[in-house]
Amino acid sequence: MALFFKATGPIGDTDTNALPVREIGPAVGYYTQCLGFSLVSKDKTTARLRRDDVEIGLAVNGQDPEQASCWFSVGNVDALHREYEAKEIGPGIIDEQEYDGKPYRVFFAKEPYGVCFCFTHPLVRES
């Protein structure tokens, strides 16, 4: 199973096209060097980033990064967890959770500016 970012979405009122950051430069550095995103575009207060099929935005918009959360659907939670452990970003433990009656493997990570991420993959149970 390939490590592949497939989709993203908000948790709560977070706008994944404008994830709040305090400064664009350091945030872009973290998202590209640690989280594996590529820079698509950038100006003084915003940036667009991409990893596989997922595109997100960063914005210096006055919002509190500690109040922002989003999820990413990935092809292989275990491989991504190992990647992030190797980069020492401190991913949480991998857990099994249910959403809308379906089981998922998930882990959480928080970037240094406060945005919380949930990385998830559907769990296929053998019958």
CATH architecture: Roll
Strand arrangement, major sheet = 1-6-9-8-7
Q: What proportion of the residues form beta strands (DSSP E)?
A: 35-45%
What gap, in angstroms, lies between the N and C termini?
20 Å
Which percent range fits the helix content? 10-25%
Can you tell me the residue ranges where pLDDT is under 50 for at least 5 consecutive residues? none
The number of distinct structural domains comes to 1
CATH superfamily: 2,3-Dihydroxybiphenyl 1,2-Dioxygenase, domain 1
Largest sheet: 5 strands, mixed
Protein name: Glyoxalase/bleomycin resistance/extradiol dioxygenase family protein
Keywords: Dioxygenase, Oxidoreductase
GO molecular function, one term: dioxygenase activity
Organism: Singulisphaera sp. Ch08
Summarize this structure as a short list of keywords or feature phrases.
globular; 2,3-Dihydroxybiphenyl 1,2-Dioxygenase, domain 1; 9 strands; 127 residues; single chain; five-stranded mixed sheet; Glyas_Bleomycin-R_OHBP_Dase; Glyoxalase/bleomycin resistance/extradiol dioxygenase family protein
Describe the structure.
The protein is of the alpha+beta class and 127 residues long. It is built from 2 helices and 9 strands; from the N terminus they run E-E-H-E-E-E-E-H-E-E-E. The strands form 2 sheets. The chain has a 5-stranded mixed β-sheet, with helices on one face.
